Amino acid sequence: MSFLNIKNATKAYGDVEVLHKIDIAVEEGEFLVLVGPSGCGKSTLLNMIAGLEEISSGEISIKGKTMNGVHPSKRNIAMVFQSYALYPNMTVAKNITFGLEMHNVPKSECASALADVAKLLQIEPLLDRRPGQLSGGQRQRVAMGRALVRNPDVFLFDEPLSNLDAKLRVDMRTEIKRLHEKLKTTMVYVTHDQIEAMTLSTRIAVMFQGYVQQLGTPKQIYDTPSNLYVATFMGSPSMNLLPVDVVDGTDGSQFELKVGEQSTKTVELKGQRLPAGRYTLGLRPEHITDPESADLESCEYLTIESVVEVVEPAGADTFVTTKLQGISVNTRMRGDIEVVTGEVTEFSIDLRRLHFFDPKTELRVELEKVGG
Amino acid sequence: MANNAGQDDFQTKLQNWLPKIVLSPSIAAMVVFVYGFIAFTVYISFSDSKMLPSYDWIGLANYTKLWKLSHWWVSITNLAVFATLYIGICTVLGLSLAILLDQKIRGEGMLRPIYLYPMALSFIVTGTAWKWILDPGIGLENTMHQWGWESFHFDWIKDRNMAIYTVVIAAVWQTSGFVMAMFLAGLRGVDNEILKAAQIDGASNWRLYRRIVIPMLRPAFLSAFVILAHLSVKSYDLIIALTGGGPGRATEVPATFMYSYTFTRNSMGIGAASAVIMLMTIAAIITPYLYAELKEKK
Amino acid sequence: MSNVTQDTAVRTSTFTRIFIYGLLILFAAYYLMPLFVMIVNSLKPLSEITSGNMMALPEVWTLEPWRQAWSKAQIGIEPTGLKPYFVNSLLIVIPAVFISTIIGAINGYVLTKWRFRGDTLIFGALLFSCFIPFQIVLIPMAIVLGKLGIAGSIPGLVLVHVVYGIGFTTLYYRNYYAVFPTELVRAAQIDGAGFFRIFWRIMLPISGPITVVSVIWQFTNVWNDFLFGASFAGQEQPMTVALNNLVQSSTGVKEYNVHFAGAILAALPTLLVYIVAGRYFVRGLMAGSVKG
């Protein structure tokens, strides 16, 4: 039995089902991120784990004990909220120890727990202030402190960084990761930000419309997205999608790729095949790059010449837009490249990183080895 | 920490029910004292109650009788005149004062409470004061005469045809400051960037207010209308204190009509019928407003 | 208010500004005039009023009308002055305001932080009750107060004012609490605080501003009430009813100066509350808490 087990969990408001039979097993010490757009049900699921929302059917258990119907305060969990939810009328110290006080922990123990947490989060000078006197980043730390002091079985985070500015968000992200590596406590983290999901998690559950679309390690999710939704949701800029007609070739399958307005190029999937038919081809921007950035040695690149539509320098990288199959596609080149809008330049496509999806079911289709 | 996993324990169940338990006395009070009482009064309006409530059903007889009473017609005509002028003048005055006060006025902090304080007074006090000011013998007319304006003539409060307008004067004095505050709040909520954009577009101040600001105050207009309309239907105290419904019946309104028919003229059935009509008038104004408000807040 | 909301970006010329100030001051005079008349004439002997000008300052200053109004004037049949009625009003207002505010706070807390199916409907029904013309409840209320044995008594009037006050107090607290994130309550739940503990420890300590609004509103409404007082008070009349009796009494000479002193006495508590705490009320008003 897993540490935190979500089995067939369903949530319905009246006749409207918003979460459909969710199954996730989280092992002790894992960092699970629930990621998806707003309204996908990720926060509802987190609230169900916390006990803040009832579970309509199914079961959620922690350490083998069912949590259905157990009051939030008795689940030995702690939660950090998006708005931090600090009690405005209490000092930072009181905010942190309020939960201990509610559980009748002796004063001396409260004090030492508070001291430990304050030291860990470096908020000692703030303890006598009120939340209104703190900056966003400081409030965030206090909110974490309030969760940490409980020494819970599971930490729950509900978009804790979304109210911070961009730089602080990156700093706090690192801090949360460091904290997890130090404490090794099980954490469940909700976010709509796919970068947070990738960087923090040991496993990600991508959610959409009340379903878990894919559950796996960040690498699995990124490298082998199981459907079109996951493929486009994860990664920024998002994956380019092109309709292609795959036919049987001499050595594996092949398809025609229209480059620019006139020319076409045949792409051969050497040694690999797909049943002939129409597919949606997925190509991440970083897998269409300039020949110098590409590792051409491996000779699994296809280099084409195409007209540059838009150039967006972003410092470390340059994003270049061009036209393939009549569709504008995003490509990613090195930062110091010199390309000019309207001129022809070379693009190298990494043929090992092609993703094929069934246009009807939107599911991933795996290539088969020829004769394998 | 205790980790009493298991089925719904008693405490958790209690916690789930507490909010509803705590709310229930209010709901009970509301059901009995508001909706129950309304139902009762509606029933009385269909009964032959005279001095005491009676439960003998006589159908619409009270209503037909009511609509044949000239006294009732005087009351509703007066209400129509009063409400139209009261709502109209309060809105115009309130909006004008709010716009003027919103021009970065030095001393706004002094002026605002001066405009608002009448709201703190009871209608009885307002009525007492204005009754006297409007009295031709000792009030404004007398003062003007003493100041040398001999031809000044102002005796509306004693004039059957004009007395209802004196009620408007006193009522406007009492409430227009409150309406001003509502509009001021609305004006302060208008996004300054819109004003700046319009000024860059070359709009004059007059056009700026007429075409951009005032249309954006729609919610304040609506709130002001609803509050003023329901106040005017309910107005009772002011008329009692200012004119007592007179001279003659010249300033009777449904509220005073209801009271005198129910408690002094021993025609409780007719009094109840008039109360039901008052309620229906207010409900027709309030219900759509509340519906829209609550729907949008949900 | 500039700290809460913004100043307008509209710009005006100097000439227009002089005109605006002129108008604003003129209106200030209009609003102040009746109060001025009342105060000035309550300090004059009666002879000066009947012969003189209502705008003129007293030639002989006297507090006698105030003394008369407070403790000697004939109200109804007894020459008691307004004092006992003033006390009646206090005895009605204080418990009525206290109880209706507490109930409103708890209702607002439940309706925003412990939402359940149908809560909007309940709130709507409660809100509607704020606007009903009270004429519709006069008849059954008279009967029920009689049955409860509290007709013509102060507890009876307290009950009436509480029942018809909770709609407004609930509205205030609901709109105020709605702004605070529900996450506050969730965090406290996880911390182990129960329904009442969250209310006392977290919600009430932040309710200062809206409590001022609710108390002022209820105080003004209950103190200024005339209809319920006139209908249900019996011998325990509130100030407004007594003042009306004083002013409308048809016997003897009309002692206008005493009437004015009485009117100011009747207005004094609400005016005081307004002067002391009115700023906060306006702030609450402007923050949109009186939407409705």
UniProtKB/TrEMBL annotation, chain A:
This is Sugar ABC transporter ATPase. It comes from Marinomonas ushuaiensis DSM 15871. Keywords: ATP-binding, Nucleotide-binding, Transport. Signal peptide: none annotated. Residues 4-234 form the ABC transporter domain. One of its GO terms (biological process) is carbohydrate transport. PANTHER family: ABC TRANSPORTER ATP-BINDING PROTEIN (PTHR43875:SF14), MALTODEXTRIN IMPORT ATP-BINDING PROTEIN MSMX (PTHR43875). GO terms for cellular component: ATP-binding cassette (ABC) transporter complex, substrate-binding subunit-containing. One of its GO terms (molecular function) is ABC-type transporter activity. Pfam families: ABC_tran (PF00005), OB_MalK (PF17912).
UniProtKB/TrEMBL annotation, chain B:
GO terms for biological process: transmembrane transport. SUPFAM superfamilies: MetI-like. Gene3D superfamilies: MetI-like. InterPro entries: ABC_transporter_permease, MetI-like, MetI-like_sf. It comes from the Bacteria. It is a multi-pass membrane protein. Residues 76-291 form the ABC transmembrane type-1 domain. One of its GO terms (cellular component) is plasma membrane. It holds the Pfam family BPD_transp_1. The chain crosses the membrane at residues 21-46, 72-102, 114-134, 162-187, 208-229, 268-292. Keywords: Cell membrane, Membrane, Transmembrane, Transmembrane helix, Transport. Its main location: membrane. It is found in: Cell membrane. Belongs to the binding-protein-dependent transport system permease family. This is Sugar ABC transporter permease.
From TrEMBL, chain C:
Signal peptide: none annotated. GO terms for cellular component: plasma membrane. It comes from the Bacteria. Residues 86-277 form the ABC transmembrane type-1 domain. InterPro entries: MetI-like (IPR000515), MetI-like_sf (IPR035906). Keywords: Membrane, Transmembrane, Transmembrane helix, Transport. The chain crosses the membrane at residues 18-40, 85-109, 121-144, 150-173, 194-217, 260-282. The keyword RNA-binding does not apply. One of its GO terms (biological process) is transmembrane transport. Its main location: membrane. It is a multi-pass membrane protein. It is found in: Cell membrane. Belongs to the binding-protein-dependent transport system permease family. PANTHER family: ABC TRANSPORTER PERMEASE PROTEIN, GLUCOSE IMPORT SYSTEM PERMEASE PROTEIN GLCU. This is Sugar ABC transporter permease.
